[in-house]
Amino acid sequence: MKNTKRCCILLSSLWLSMMLLLTGCKGTERETEKGSIRIGVSLYRGDDTFINNIRGELEKCAKTYEQENSMKINLDIQDAKGSQNTQNDQVDRFISLGCDVLCINLVDRTAASVVIDKAMEAQIPVVFFNREPVEEDMNRWDQLYYVEAVAKESAVLQGNIVVKQYQEHPESLDLNGDGVVSYVLLEGESSHQDSLIRTEWSVQTLKDGGVPIEKITGGIANWERSQASALMEQWLEKYPGMIELIICNNDDMALGAIDAMERAGISGISVVGIDGTTPGLEAVENGKLLGTVSCDKERYAGAIFTMAVSRAVGEEIPPEIELDEGKYYYCPQQIVIRNR
Ligand code: GAL
Predict the structure, then answer these.
(1) Cβ(299) – ligand 1 distance below 6 Å
(2) How far, in Å, from the CA of 59 to the mean position of ligand 1?
(3) Pairing outcome for strands 291-295 and 333-337
(4) Quick check: 301 and 130 in contact, CB under 8 A?
(5) What are the pLDDT tens digits along the chain (340 aa)?
(6) 151-295 has which fold?
(7) Contact residues for 282 (Cβ-Cβ < 8 A; gap 6+)
(8) Could you tell me where in the chain the CATH 3.40.50.2300 domains are found?
(9) What is the Cα–Cα distance from 263 to 279, expressed in whole angstroms?
(10) Closest approach atom of ligand 1 to CA 105
(11) pTM of the model
């Protein structure tokens, strides 16, 4: 929370100077009158665990900001429930309600142009997050931003968890001692930029790290615990005693795989995830998950919030939020394994 607080304090002083200087920028005049900022947030699916963690942090940021500044934050968070049409309608509503800035977790990352058209017409900046608009769309306007945890970095860190485990305890991965670690892979949505990249780089990192691997099978479980659990149940039946490692593109699918193993009364197979969600971190702590890769969610949400508020009041984004190409913020990540 420290960084967020620091950003909030900095914003507060910038805000006060702006009030004093009466710079006359659009956002400032509007906010001076209202004494409030309205932020429209649309989530691709409100039941996604990682996105829910980010939502919780955004709500904390808004509360902290209100407490530290004489400014009311109207954080209007809507669930698009997996429908791009619904999300487009939510954007229309945000605009008609006079939102000062939009934070959009796109349903369909290739459909950003509709949202961008609406935002540009209404002159409302947009902070996209987690589901990356294509570069061509991001280049359409200088009031478009994007926040994410870099997929390749998550995957390399995930691979490193397994490499370290293999170096220290090869027998815990090569369960049948045949000199090869046989794995299955659970992937996120096929249309999501993170799925392909994470899959490719997790496997590559194992190879680069000298883990002798062999793929048994893989499948798409769309980030979902229940879908992963169903797939895993089939694989456990089809490949009895063969699976030694389960590589998952996210924590929820890892937890689904663990659910299936628990139902089948199977233990000893290593599982790795990505996200560091609240249940994911618990599973690491109680030894069910070998490890996960956690992005700093306070920082992730803090960046979205600070960028949104800065733009809402017509202020530059503070230098603490280090932007790539003036619009991309990449949240730091770290490995989480059990404290032994
Ligand atoms: C990924 C995350 C998944 C899911 C997805 C939604 O980055 O790892 O758990 O939240 O985003 O877009």
Answers:
(1) no
(2) 19
(3) antiparallel
(4) no
(5) 333 333 333 333 333 233 322 222 233 344 445 589 999 999 999 999 999 999 999 999 999 999 999 899 999 999 999 999 999 999 999 999 999 999 999 999 999 999 999 999 999 999 999 999 999 999 999 999 999 999 999 999 999 999 999 999 999 999 999 999 999 999 999 999 899 999 999 999 999 999 999 999 999 999 999 999 999 999 999 999 999 999 999 999 999 999 999 999 999 999 999 999 999 999 999 999 999 999 999 999 999 999 999 999 999 999 999 999 999 999 999 999 997 6
(6) Rossmann fold (3.40.50)
(7) none
(8) 2-147+297-330, 151-295
(9) 18
(10) 12
(11) 0.89
CA-nearest of 86, 81, 76 to 46 is 81
Show the tokens assigned to 5: 């607080």
Question: 81: helix, coil or strand?
Answer: coil
Count each helix (H run) and each strand (E run) in the chain, helices first: 12, 12
Instruction: Give the pair of three-digit tokens for residue 289.
Output: 């998950």
CA quadruple 314, 70, 72, 54: dihedral, nearest 10: 80
Q: What is the CATH number assigned to the segment(s) 2-147+297-330?
A: 3.40.50.2300
* Closest ligand 1 atom to 277 CA: 9
Alpha carbons 69 and 176: distance in angstroms, whole number: 61
Query: What residue type is assigned to position 225 of the chain?
Result: R
Amino acid at 16: L
- State the first-to-last Cα distance of the chain, in angstroms, to the nearest integer: 27
Report the separation in Å between the CA atom of 32 and the middle of ligand 1, taken as the mean of its atom positions: 37
